[in-house]
Amino acid sequence: MNNTTRANNPFDKFLDLTCLTPFGLLTILILAVLPFVPPFNHEYLIRWLISAALMACLAIAFDFTAGLINIVNFGYCAIMGLGAYTSAIMVSRLGCNIWLSMLIGGLLAAMAGVVIGVITLRLRGIFAACLAWFFGLALMGTTIKLVWLTRGPMGLEAKRLMDTQSNVPYYYVILLMMVAIYAICRWVTRTKMGVAFKAIGQNMEAARTSGINPVLYRLANFVLSCTIAGVVGGFYAHYYGILTPDMMKTAKTVEVLAVAYIGGRGSLWGGAAIAFPLTFAMELLRSSLSNLPGINLVIYGILLVTVMIYYPGGFAEFFDSHIRKTKGKVMGYILNGASGGNNTI
Q: What is the domain count for the chain?
């Protein structure tokens, strides 16, 4: 098939629009039918699928910053919490439409991202990460203290997104959000802005000498990532129906970081792919080892060390390397068969 035919192929156009590969599309289709396949059709397992898809959304957006511009936002789940509380308060106090309130939560998270970014992104490495962490702690502390607005540790009730006891509709909403978030982030990486992000992540000084303004591009990246966190936080609020400041803890951000890094830093899709098996594994651990709180963080730490030693590129590197080997073997068999087993030319 020539390039012109491929360009006019509706299927290829769809894949290009969604930034998916055929294998990625197949994976999403499998995820779409899972709620109807035993044993995943049980409500508690669908809740696990929702948690996994939510983690995948956060991992993609987190990796968009950590993997491309080398900024680890340790206050990421605090930003998500800001979007969640904003959306819940807009609905309960002002009677705002839920879908609109989720977007408003994303907008407020973006504004917080601008404030945090302007202050922190002039710094580098661990200094920027620590300052972002301090802002996250400040947001969580503010949420605890503003009892009149957030009810603090007592928990803030949020209206549910849909009037149904079934988890299936929520699963499809977050699955669509996951695909949309991945497509947006991947599409941005294909633009000139995405090229600038990668250049800054590889060598900031070289990027600066090439005419790229590192602070401006890093800020744009940071704000988009925070916006996504705010919108996802809105879904979190209106799915679980209750918010406490615990959702903003640094430990929650560490879980997102671990999933993104185990999946493959800078790949975007790796964190989303690994979020599902990891979430199920952690839920099984919590249910079977409930007397060992924090065991999930220990497991994440072991997995991170293992990945750093054997596959620094994470699951994405592992997957790509094995696919390439498989393709090479297949092509070798085809060529040997075509030549009748004769290896000479």
A: 1
